[in-house]
Amino acid sequence: MTIHTDRLTTALDRYAPGSSDDLEAILSTDESIPRTAVRRVLDSDRRCEVLRCLLAEDGPLEVRTLVARIADVEHDATAVTPLLDLRQRVHVSLCQTHLPLLEKYRILSYDQTAGHVTPGATLSAFEAVLE
Fold this sequence. Notes:
InterPro entries: DUF7344. The chain is mostly helical. The protein is built from six helices and three strands, in the order H-H-H-E-H-H-E-E-H.
């Protein structure tokens, strides 16, 4: 796995405690999300990229399309890992870890059988933080 030093800060790191109106907006929505859940969601670059892709798409997205987009963002042409291997790793981590977590907090809906991800009730609350 390649570690990109320019990606070590997460979306949450860009907001100092108490100074982020956008972060507070997420916490004060009608579909309230616990502060620890917001931190957990924003602590992963892959989860943030999933949210960005869903916000950009504004509708259902196939998991394979999501995997391809995230692998393309993470791919380093100078890396030893082939793109196909990276896509397989992204697919496994999304399906086993990231998508179920995001679904748990109603940020998205993940249909494993159909292979689709759709925006959830609380997704729009993350839009301002991810810009």
